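Tokenised fold entry reproduced for absentees:

. . .
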Amino acid sequence: MKRAPFAALLLGAVTVFGFAPFGLFPLPVVTLALLFLLWRRTESPRQSALLGFSWGLGFFLAGVSWVYVSMHDIGGMAAVLAALATFLFSAYLALYPALAGYLFGRFRSGTPWRDALLAAGAWTLSEWLRGWVFTGFPWLGIGYSQTPPSPLAGFAPVLGVYGVCLLTALIGALLAAGWRNARILGAVAVIVVAGLSLRFVAWTEPEGPPITVALLQGDIPQSLKWDPENLSLSVQTYLKLAREHPAQVTVLPETAIPLLFDRIPREVLQALTVHGDVILGTAIRKRGDRYTNGAVALTPDRAVQAYSKVHLVPFGEFVPPGFGWFFGLVNIPMADFTAGAPDQKPLIVDGQKMMPDICYEDLFGEEIRRGLPEATMLVNLTNTAWFGHSLAQPQHLQISRMRALETGRPMLRATNTGMTAAVAPDGSVTAVLPPFTADALTVEVRGYRGLTPFARVGNMLAILLALAACLPAWRSRRTG
């Protein structure tokens, strides 16, 4: 077992190839199966936790390496400090698979099927905790690797991303328990066939006529975006894109024009709405000197609706208590936003009810479903210039695909540098712009109505199933 931690570290790093942009969706099943096999050979909960930590460290160092890009390349933090911060952040995230390993080592029964259920349940519960502790960071949850064409994508509208995580981990655990066992292979086949069958279920249905939407991608470098001398670059870029790509609805990304909304010249707003309604990512002034990261819907008759971001990014959009010193090390403009109310309504544009989410808000499916059943479409506005040429862009698009699956709604993405895309309710990408290009993606899209099972109950069902999966091993230990 001396080399097991290093093997687990490599398995975690390799798992990143199961996610976008690589898309080798069977790979996480294999790497989890090998990790669970290592767990079965440990002699104590502490050893299992160490292997879980090693797996997680390799996984997050490889998968969220864009944190270094954001802090050093874009934010200006010293390279040594940015590398240390990235390592510490990855080490913190690795504590969650370590927790799963500890629970497995503590409660395993020695019976293959009970222990397979325990491994899958503990893994899912640890990912769920990662999704809300300290405001949550569910990025690279295992379930996200199973977007189409994975057969497990069929479970997303029913169980959500954590349910897909549970089934992914369960298949891996079953294979680790006995991949030559006919009953185990039969159970895996049942899960796969059920997922494929669910892909043919239409949980929601189209509503209203299709509309044309232009999703603008300005490709404004972060180094220039907040420089007052380069304000005209943002304004002229988006005015030009809107003029050259007329549509019924035009969507600009997060903080597309780097001014408070009430300071944007009226003639700019009028020019944007010449052809139809507009959704504009912008900072919105509140009482006093407070402001929110928001989206404003404008119509040619000057009607205004607004949405304010609810789930803010620690260190990027607000200062956690006791961490004011951090902003002396990195340059992050407008890093003290105020959160919006959680019960906001969709923005009504051209007869459709679009529910905005800004930047990484679309990581939180439980929060996205708050806009349902009213919302007929979802729209994500983000500024991905913060992450440079990294894995963050394709990974974020994959997250949006999961939200479309869970809600049975189209997801439209307007980004600054990529990936600007249109996602169908079945999670397929119908159109996407090349990253790091200034262009517009014009698509025809219809709204949808109805509720998926996930939209009705959220994560509750998946978490109850994960708890239930842990019970047989726990009861066996108590009675044994």
